Amino acid sequence: MTKPKVLISDKMDPNAARIFEERGCDVDVITGQSPEELLKIIGEYDGLAIRSSTKVTADILEAATNLKVIGRAGIGVDNVDVPVASAKGVVVMNTPFGNSITTAEHAIAMIMALARQIPDANESTQAGKWEKSRFMGVEVTGKTLGLIGAGNIGSIVASRALGLKMKVIAFDPFLTDERAVEIGVENVDLDALLARADFITLHTPLTDQTRNILSRENLGKTKQGVRIVNCARGGLIDEEALREALDSGHVAGAALDVFTEEPAKENVLFGAPNFICTPHLGASTTEAQVNVALQVAEQMSDYLVNGGVTNALNLPSLSAEEAPKLTPYMALAERLGSLVGQLAHGNLTQISIEREGAAAQLNGKPIGAAVLSGFMSQYSDTVNMVNAPFLARERGLDVREIRHDREGVYHTLLRVTVATSQGDRSVAGTLFGNENPRLVEIFGIGIEAELSGNMLYVVNEDAPGFIGRLGTLLGEQGINIGTFHLGRRDEAGDGDAVLLLSLDSPIPSKVMDMVCEVPGVRMAMPLAF
């Protein structure tokens, strides 16, 4: 078996390469390449490990014909075209926790530096001055810290601030009251935070919703004398409005580690009173640099060798421990999706993925992605679990996932239903022995069948002699039947029946025309898995 091949294109701890090799990957370390140089070699690699220097553009992704995963040693993926990577079926991972403590500590350091005007006091003292009265600071004890963003880094900042005896309030659309109690903060809306906070620190990604979250209008809502810290992402603050607020004294001080444009060789904030800045040092500690390099190597090798998915931005997480248990379910899910995709006709508007029994207790995201992968394979020949949800959204398909606690006839069951202009079409399957996928229902008719290889699907009039006529025709045309599966809508024999035949070879179109002419055939079509 050929080993996955990984390229490390940015400088990172050398132990990352060792981890790739120990976990079964071949690795090349080639740093400092131009985009043109990277274009020439990227097609050789299954994985690409980067930091912030390598720009993974649409052109790079187009040339990366074998690429399966991109791993960013750090949090931000601004240098990766994630939508194009998703459309190409490439997993994009980051390492959101490797530098969390480091970034949180930098924010706390900025808060203390602002409170005691340490940079200006240092510069003045080293210049031979002794201006004790000029540098009258404030205590942080008893002050209110407002967190905008209470995720991993924000919660660490909260714990450190609570240790400094600050009162912490937080705004985060995803923060529940239970989680707020757990991390010791008060859950408030943004306007309340702006009005109450003595210090504000930002810990949120840059999105359309968070861009300029501290806008001119919102800065005007803050308390007179507020101090502001941003060690998250540039673009969260309107820098021109912040400069005006610093000049007027409404904002008593600001400390930024990140800027809208980086490297920040020039900026409207430079030279403002009580302004502190650092060159994006949030993750710049020896420990953090080692941690993110080792973490990205572990995550990427787990995915390439074992199928485990951790910290992916465009694929549900699937740990290496979960992968063996979920693998047969994902195989079943993909085949059910493929089956309903091949059989359903008309304008497709919605797909529902239902799990019950043992399946309801599992991680449903990878199962749902596998269903979409099988389903969307009917519309693209380059589909996989990464780009299938993207392709579904692109076509306006409404995807619904439903979990049932009930116990049914089968100990575990997956059901896939597609809503079409001609009505709902549903198929269901289970696992035999917890590992062998089986179809157990098709369009309301019970049937037991494997879904593999070349198959023939027939809906026919349930009448004597039909099976013999069909078998004779296929035999005369040199088509060998491997297995034969029959389902009936009505046991009385006066309704529809379904036949699923596995064939040793694809069925030619001329033979399909002959099958459709067999008396009693209502509908017939070839299937492939």
Topology:
Layout: E1 5-8, H1 15-22, E2 26-29, H2 35-41, E3 47-50, H3 58-63, E4 69-72, H4 82-87, E5 91-93, H5 100-116, H6 118-126, E6 144-148, H7 152-163, E7 167-171, H8 177-183, E8 186-187, H9 190-196, E9 199-202, H10 216-220, E10 226-230, H11 239-248, E11 251-256, E12 275-277, H12 286-306, H13 322-343, E13 348-357, H14 364-376, H15 387-394, E14 398-404, E15 412-420, E16 423-432, E17 436-442, E18 445-449, E19 454-461, H16 466-476, E20 481-488, E21 496-503, H17 509-516, E22 521-528
Parallel strand pairs: 1-2, 1-3, 3-4, 4-5, 6-7, 6-9, 7-8, 9-10, 10-11, 11-12, 13-14
Antiparallel strand pairs: 13-15, 15-16, 16-17, 17-18, 19-21, 19-22, 20-21
Structural class: alpha/beta
CATH third-level topology of the largest domain: Rossmann fold
Number of spatially distinct domains: 4
Low-confidence stretches: none
Number of strands: 22
Radius of gyration: 30 Å
CATH-level-4 superfamily name of the largest domain: NAD(P)-binding Rossmann-like Domain
Terminal residue distance = 24 Å
Main sheet makeup: 7 strands, parallel
CATH architecture group name of the largest domain: 3-Layer(aba) Sandwich
| Largest beta sheet: strand ordering | 8-7-6-9-10-11-12
* Residues in β-strands, percent: 15-25%
Mean pLDDT: 89
What's the shape?
elongated
Task: Give the count of helical stretches.
Answer: 17
**What top-tier CATH class of the largest domain fits best?**
Alpha Beta
Task: Name the helicity range.
Answer: 25-40%
What does this structure look like?
This protein is α/β, with parallel strands linked by helices and 529 residues long. It has four domains: 5-97 and 288-306, 3-Layer(aba) Sandwich (Rossmann fold), CATH 3.40.50; 100-277, 3-Layer(aba) Sandwich (Rossmann fold), CATH 3.40.50.720; 321-451, 60s Ribosomal Protein L30, Chain: A (2-Layer Sandwich), CATH 3.30.1330; 454-529, Alpha-Beta Plaits. The protein is 33% helix and 24% strand. The protein is built from 17 helices and 22 strands. The protein has helices at residues 15-22, 35-41, 58-63, 82-87, 100-116, 118-126, 152-163, 177-183, 190-196, 216-220, 239-248, 286-306, 322-343, 364-376, 387-394, 466-476, 509-516; strands at 5-8, 26-29, 47-50, 69-72, 91-93, 144-148, 167-171, 186-187, 199-202, 226-230, 251-256, 275-277, 348-357, 398-404, 412-420, 423-432, 436-442, 445-449, 454-461, 481-488, 496-503, 521-528. The strands form four sheets. A seven-stranded parallel sheet has the order 8-7-6-9-10-11-12, sandwiched between helices. Strands 14-13-15-16-17-18 form a six-stranded mixed sheet, with helices on one face. Strands 2-1-3-4-5 form a five-stranded parallel sheet. Strand 7, helix 8 and strand 8 (186-187) form a beta-alpha-beta unit. The protein is elongated. It starts with a strand and ends with a strand. The model has no long low-confidence stretch (mean pLDDT 89).
